[in-house]
Design goal:
3 strands; alpha+beta; three-stranded antiparallel β-sheet; 25% helix; single chain
Length: 61
């Protein structure tokens, strides 16, 4: 029974999350630099410019 409930909750969440699409919730951060291309020593100085949780902006620099 527990796994059936877990599958149902997961199914409902997939309808709300999983891609950046109008009407879906989004958690993401906009950083001051591309940390995948930055020099390793520069990464600690990276700043969160904007933080979005559940589709709401919770921090904006």
């Amino acid at each position: 029974m527990r796994s059936a409930v877990s599958r149902r909750v997961s199914s409902v969440r997939r309808k709300e999350r999983g891609s950046l699409t109008v009407g879906k919730l989004a958690d993401f951060v906009v950083l001051s630099r591309d940390i995948l291309r930055a020099a390793p020593q520069d990464i600690p100085g990276t700043i969160a410019e904007t933080v979005v949780v559940g589709g709401d902006i919770v921090h904006q620099r």
